Amino acid sequence: MINMNDLLKVDHLKTGFESDYGTIVSVDDVSFRMKSGETLAIVGESGSGKSVTALSMMRLLGTGSRIMGGQVLFEGKDLLKLNDQEMCDIRGNQMSMIFQEPMTSLNPVLTIGYQMCESIMIHLKQSKKEAWASAVEMLKKVGLPRPEAIMKEYPFALSGGMRQRVMIAMAMSCRPKVLIADEPTTALDVTVQAQIMKLMKELCEESGTAILLITHDLGVVAEMADRVLVMYAGQVVEEADVFTLFEDPKHPYTQGLLKSIPRLDSDDDAELESIPGAVPARYESIQGCRFYNRCPYATEKCHAEMPLLTVTGKDHFTRCWEAQRIEGGVEEVAYE
Amino acid sequence: MSNENHIRDNNGLQPLLTLENLKKYYPSDVKAVDGVSFQIYPGETLGLVGESGSGKSTIGKMIVGLEKPTDGRILFDGRDISGLSSKEMMNLRSELQIVFQDPYSSLNPRKRIADLLAEPLKVHRIVPAKDISGEVDRLLELVRLPRSSKNRYPHEFSGGQRQRIGIARALSLKPKLIICDEPVSALDVSIQAQILNLLKDLQKELNLTYLFIAHGLGAVKYVSDRIAVMHQGKIVEIGNKAEIFHDPKHPYTKALLDASPIADPRLRNKKKLTNVPG
């Protein structure tokens, strides 16, 4: 049954890559839902599967990788079942995406104006003249000076921050219902990052666009997100609203992450706690918990049996045997 | 741990490194570094923060002789090293080392760890040939890597482990000053704390002096005693850590602090955003 409040629902998504060693599952049974106007952040380290989740949703995976199971329901339609043309009608129109590298995601040999107008003309069926006017309007909205002049420029003439503003303008030009932003500010300086984050928030509040924000930076999460999904080794290990996650993290990995970031808001010179070890390189074959080798609370059970994502509080889900024992929770999260 | 006792204690304490009106201009009028002066005292960590293009890495490169200054002086242990020939610089390298940002590209992929660590020992004749193997073991232990790492190649290590190898190489020559140029920026969040703690522990154990260059204020705050803030080739503010964070004087420092995300959602609406032109 579809909850009418859900704009988007990802259900048991599983994506794998073919390699010399067989199929490597990089997104393993990921589920979440998003409402209009909500910002959901996915946090995780490199290789945790957060970007592959986004690419799977947009059906932009490269060759060699494939979606092995699950559903991506957008307004009740399973995007994974659409044909290419139907998907093209949604992509860039109702769902759009911003990538980390503003340098490489713009075409260097086409003007900003050409690239801006292209998607407006295709999706909103506007004439070239109308599209040009909407594009200029959009560039103005993202705070770029001299938008008419920028329309005629090539990407190389713009700074990183300006290019990322162009990318946002482009992504927002068709008023998407969902905006997927994959590390949108990682390549930018902090002062520019702050402006870009503020801009994304304002635009989305104005149009009711839901943001899926993918990042490794817990500071950015704290500033932007309503809900947070923590991924580790291809799985969701914890999900909660942003306040709960920072105040009362239940998964040892989330706890470790939060303790290991140097704080700007305290003068405590105490040594940072660090999570020992590193993410296992091959994790599909691990039977138990994938955080087992780095976890301070690991037990025999954790080694032998993979914990399920279970309810550990109000709208708070954790994949951990120890958290379940403490909370007394046994109820598996059912995304129905 | 507090290093307050040896900060700016100029009476009697000679600076280990002094920059005097250091400049680096590139053709076409780019002033990457435009008249920078500061001192670093033995045993302290000076954090150098700034955004991309502010000139902070260029300063690091000039100190270790990888870039020639256009003007100004670099005094190391009281001696001007800015005009040294590459041969003279070579002799100084053992006292002055640099750890780079990217542990993936700064290690030769075709050499085993044992050889990577032995190389500087041989070149600078730090220990007699028969002791090299033992010294490599000691270095690995120093950076908390298992001895079994010796026969492996760089690609077999994770980013954090590779950065440990980079640090071991820098330590092998028993330097007095280490320039850390964004040493944790390329690492995963859960690994960064490991490396920051290692750098702090090593400083205590070996009485090292650091110039810690970074754009992330969190890491700089954690390791530094004093902090210099760079903007467009100039130091706009320098002071001890508490002053910079609690009572920033320069508008750019304030803007930088305001813009840095704080990992606490309860504080999100308390900040005002200052626009930084340029």
Task: Characterise this structure.
- The complex is a heterodimer of chains A (336) and B (278).
- By secondary structure, chain A is of the alpha/beta class.
- Chain A is built from 12 helices and 12 strands.
- In chain A, the strands form 2 sheets. In chain A, strands 6-7-8-3-9-10-12-11 form an 8-stranded mixed beta sheet, sandwiched between helices. Chain A has a 4-stranded antiparallel beta sheet with strand order 2-1-4-5.
- In chain A, a hairpin with a 2-residue loop joins β11 (310-313) and β12 (316-318).
- In chain A, α3 (112-124) packs across α4 (128-141), α4 (128-141) crosses α6 (160-172) and α6 (160-172) runs parallel beside α7.
- Chain B has one domain: P-loop containing nucleotide triphosphate hydrolases (Rossmann fold).
- Chain B has 278 residues and is α/β, with parallel strands linked by helices.
- The model of chain B is unreliable at 1-9 (pLDDT under 50).
- In chain B, α3 packs across α4 and α5 packs parallel to α6.
- Chain B contains 9 helices and 10 strands.
- Chain B has helices spanning 56-63, 86-92, 113-123, 132-142, 159-171, 189-206, 217-223, 241-246, 251-259; strands at residues 17-26, 30-40, 45-49, 71-76, 79-80, 96-99, 177-181, 209-214, 226-231, 234-240.
- The interface between A and B is large, with 42 and 42 residues.
Features:
heterodimer, A: 336 residues, alpha/beta, eight-stranded mixed β-sheet, 12 helices, 12 strands, globular, B: 278 residues, Rossmann fold, four-stranded antiparallel β-sheet, 32% helix, 22% strand, AAA+_ATPase (chain B)
In short:
The complex is a heterodimer of chains A (336) and B (278). Chain A is α/β, with parallel strands linked by helices.
Largest interface: A-B, 42 and 42 residues
Distance from first to last alpha carbon of chain A: 6 Å
Distance between the termini of chain B: 38 Å
Oligomer: heterodimer
Structural class of chain A: alpha/beta
Q: Approximately what portion of the residues of chain A adopt beta-strand conformation?
A: 15-25%
CATH architectural grouping of chain B: 3-Layer(aba) Sandwich
Strand order of the largest sheet of chain B: 6-7-8-3-9-10
Characterize the largest beta sheet of chain A: strand count, sense, and whether it forms a barrel: 8 strands, mixed
Cα-atom Rg of chain B, whole angstroms?
19 Å
The total beta strand count of chain A reads 12
Radius of gyration of chain A: 21 Å
The biggest beta sheet of chain B reads:
6 strands, mixed
Q: Uncertain runs of chain B with pLDDT below 50, 5 residues or more?
A: 1-9
How do the SSEs of chain A run, as a string of H and E?
EEEHEEHEHHHHEHEHEEHHHEEH
